[in-house]
Amino acid sequence: MTDQITRMNALERELHLRQLQVRRLLQITQAINNNVAVDDLFDMYRTFLHQELGVLEMALFVRDSQNDQRWLMATQIGMDDKPLPDFDLGAALARFTRPGLVNPKVHPFFANFVHVVPVLHKERPIAYILIGRFSEEEDMFERVQIITTITNVIAVAIENKRLFRRQLEQERLEADLDLGAKVQQMLIPEKYPHRDQYEISTIYKPKLGVGGDYIDYKEFEDGKLVFCIGDFTGKGVSAALLMANFQANFHTLIKKRTDLYDFVTEINTAVYQITRGERFVTFFVAEYDMHDHVLRYVNAGHPPPVLVSENGIKLLTEGTLVLGSIDVLPMLEVGTVQLPDEALVVTFTDGLTDLQNLAGETFDEQILYDFCRRQHGRSAAAFNRSLKTMLDDFRQQTEYPDDLTVLTCRIFRGLEE
């Protein structure tokens, strides 16, 4: 009779636990379907384990939403007065590949617990539940099984929310890049001049569709040509908006027909008023005068362009600091070059010289200079086509590390006074 009563009591306890499991699963499922906040799900989970299953110590670890390789303790029971781990337990948790007993030798923090249950989703761990003592020792196996089931439901829901947030962030990033690319495309000239006195050709390949490189030019009726290249810090819409503002200032200020010294001074002030020193642009601007066949230029912290002719190579280095970093430029020099009958000016951003091949070799400046010596007699368009072919052959299967922009201006003997 006593054995029969004992079996009946055991069956009643098991039935009670199963009823609890069904009720809680229903409540949690409804909460998930109602898109309840993650913190509220953790509260429901903690309350169920502590008040209805009698769990005295528990710690639930889930993946960090910002760093997939880092694990965070999402909720806990009985750990308020215990020393918590002051670093990521990812390596220690990875030792647990199946439900079982905790080995306290793995890490001192694990001495607070008896059971561990890894939660897998598509064979990938998404959570770990560490369980310590219960208020009652009866039906331990059944209680751990119920905790495992409930934890699986909670952890998968949290993982799905995390992946959904990541997807939204990725979609927002892609939308930002797409908008930035559209804005940027409107800022880059569609056509470039091809005159008897000069011609311009470009290579423009922004990384991921949108970058921080800028090229532009302006022709004047008095026989002058201004062309420029710049590299803005940042990407996406923020860089595109800064570039749009820069373009507006470039065309407004260059039309004032002041000399390059005043032009660069004013455009630096305009950039600084927007960025307050938090963003900047490397910039090179040159003015070619067909009447005196002189090139005047300012290099504001930009990779030195190459002036190549029958006389050899000259680097265009004179100028000032990058634009936008400080409100008043401490020094500014305008470079002046009396050109020979024919010359080629090759301007570029650092995406060119940062390019590497499979062997880790860099397409450094010396390679570019040697190429310029061999190819300087060609038209600007032919020069750029050969350069692009050489770059593709050099990099082989490697990706371009940054935006790739080249503006090449070929200059012939201009008008005689």
CATH topology of the largest domain: Phosphatase 2c, domain 1
- The CATH architecture designation of the largest domain is 4-Layer Sandwich
Helices and strands, in order, run as: HHEEHEEEHEEEHHEEEEEEEHHHE
DSSP helix fraction: 25-40%
Give the averaged pLDDT, no decimals: 84
Describe the protein's architecture and organization.
The structure is a single chain. With 417 residues, the protein is of the alpha+beta class. It folds into 2 domains: 167 residues, 2-Layer Sandwich (Beta-Lactamase); 224 residues, Phosphatase 2c, domain 1 (4-Layer Sandwich). 40% of the residues lie in helices and 24% in strands. The strands form 3 sheets. Strands 7, 8, 9, 10, 13 and 14 form a 6-stranded mixed beta sheet that branches. α1 packs antiparallel against α2. It starts with a helix and ends in a 6-residue tail after the last strand. The relative contact order is 0.09. The mean pLDDT is 84. This is SpoIIE family protein phosphatase. It comes from Neolewinella lacunae. Keywords: Hydrolase.
Summarize the structure.
Residues 195-411 form the PPM-type phosphatase domain. GO terms for molecular function: phosphatase activity. The chain is α+β, with helices and mostly antiparallel strands and 417 residues long.
Pick out its properties:
6-stranded mixed sheet, Beta-Lactamase, SpoIIE family protein phosphatase, Phosphatase 2c, domain 1, 417 residues, hydrolase, single chain, 2 domains, 5-stranded antiparallel sheet, alpha+beta, GAF-like_dom_sf, PPM-type_phosphatase-like_dom
